[in-house]
Every structure is written in C-alpha cells, then in structure tokens.
Amino acid sequence: MRMRKPFEIGGIIAGVVLIVFGTAAIYMGVDGRSTVRDSLKQEQITIGSVDDPVVARYASQYADQQVTSGDQARAFAQVIRGHTIKLTGGLT
C-alpha cells in the first residue's frame, strides 16, 4: 500500500503535463495557420489563366485568383511543378 500513493501522484502529474502539451500544440497549430495565411496575402501570388494547360489540369477552380489558402497554395505548387517538368523535358 505504501507504493500506491506515489504512483497516483505520478499519474496525476503526467496527466497535467500531457494536457499542457496538448494545449500548447493546438495553440501552435492555430498560430501557424494564421501566419501562413497572412504571408500568402502579403505575397499577392495569382494563379494563371485557365487557358494555360497546366493551370487547367491542376488548378482550374482557382484560375485567375489570388492565393490565400493552403489548398490554393498546394494547387499553385502543382502548377509550378507542371511547368518545370514541361520546360525541362521531364527533369525536376
């Protein structure tokens, strides 16, 4: 019975530590998302016209729009990669 009390206290401390780490991780995720969105708006990147075959293939739903979200940034990255592969003959 003497060893039970330290394990109970240790379990409570471990639980509190995990709650603190979880809260910090959630805060960091929200802050990171906000930072990315602010940075994208400052860059003022615009996805090209749907007349471009690479844009039509990878980002037609975002054609002629400013990149302001992560989904749009991923689509724009695919457009850049498509142009790179096209211009280099398949090399990256």
Descriptors:
0% strand; 92 residues; 3 helices
Task: Please give a quick description of this structure.
This protein has 92 residues and is mostly helical. Helix content is 71%, strand content 0%.
Oligomer kind? single chain
Q: Can you tell me the residue ranges where pLDDT is under 50 for at least 5 consecutive residues?
A: none
| H-E string | HHH
Mean pLDDT: 92
Radius of gyration from CA coordinates: 24 Å
Number of alpha- plus pi-helical segments: 3
The total of beta strands comes to: 0
Instruction: Profile the largest sheet.
Output: none
* Inertia-based shape: elongated
Q: How would you portray this structure in words?
A:
This protein has 92 residues and is mostly helical. The protein folds into 2 domains: 1-43; 45-92, no CATH class. The protein has 3 helices and no strands. It has helices spanning 4-43, 53-58, 70-88. The model has no long low-confidence stretch (mean pLDDT 92).
